[in-house]
């Protein structure tokens, strides 16, 4: 079983960044405006806090406990395109998957990867798109579905 002590500082930073990158892939696929962004960020944060109490492996427990104390939302560089943001987020998830394959047990890797997919799904379901004053709209757009599927495929797991 793995804990923070089993990873280098850079490895741990990568693991800490992965949840927000799973969310960023979805947010950037179908922007929801300022209110939607807050709701989507809150959904990702709730998933992190929830995992702190429901984690089945020491690795996810250590990671979420650490994230509870200092959680930040990364900012895209000025002038970054949606494609560049999505490519960077996907690369972080790819590197996370490789790191888990190298240093975590299969159970830990599976739990953490499924958790990342659930974060992406919760982000997608956080707000309706295309409605007016709370009426109508679509809960999860096709772009968001595609982004959740990209998160899952990048991590090598089935979508939630």
The value of Rg in angstroms is 15 Å
Proportion of residues in β-strands: under 5%
Helices and strands: which structural class? mainly alpha
* SSE arrangement, N to C: HHHHHH
Broad shape: globular
**In which range does the helix fraction lie?**
55-70%
Number of helices: 6
* Overall number of domains: 1
Low-pLDDT regions:
none
Biggest β-sheet description:
none
Counted beta strands: 0
- Average pLDDT: 87
What features would you describe in this structure?
The protein is an all-alpha fold. The protein has one domain (about 5-155). It has 6 helices and no strands. α1 (about 10-30) packs parallel to α5 (about 105-125). It is globular, with a radius of gyration of 15 Å. The mean pLDDT is about 85.
How would you summarize what this structure contains?
By secondary structure, this protein is an all-alpha fold. The protein has six helices and no strands. Helix 2 (33-54) crosses helix 3 (58-69), helix 4 packs parallel to helix 6 (142-155) and helix 5 runs antiparallel to helix 6.
Topology:
Blueprint (H helix, E strand, L loop, with lengths): L8 H21 L3 H22 L3 H12 L12 H22 L2 H19 L17 H14 L5
